[in-house]
Design a protein that fits this description.
Layout lengths: L6 H25 L4 H23 L6 H27 L5
Helix pairs in contact: 1-2, 1-3, 2-3
Length: 96
């Protein structure tokens, strides 16, 4: 899937999706507050981030397995907190 991209893109894809979640939330709250067009990409973002980290752990070319595991253990909890607050902000206070 991401094997044709340079290593830096594979490593930085998960934080870029996290930043895109924040941008989508802020823009979505201004334009379409509480809309499903804003919420459904946010619901899909965390599983995609998890799969990207899993890919980095399995892939040997981008970084070592222990480095990728540590990277996932640091980024996934932070991404979960950002994801939760983005969902709350985009929906107007309700989580679901």
């Amino acid at each position: 899937m991401l094997q044709w991209y340079p290593v830096h893109y594979r490593i930085g894809a998960a934080p870029l999706i996290t930043a895109a979640m924040v941008a989508l939330t802020l823009l979505g709250r201004l334009i379409l507050p509480g809309s499903a067009l804003v919420l459904w990409p946010l619901y899909a973002a965390l599983p995609v981030i998890f799969l990207l980290h899993l890919y980095l752990i399995v892939d040997d070319q981008s970084m070592g397995k222990l480095d990728a595991l540590f990277y996932a253990l640091v980024h996934l909890p932070l991404a979960f907190v950002v994801w939760t607050f983005c969902l709350i902000h985009a929906s107007g206070g309700n989580l679901f």
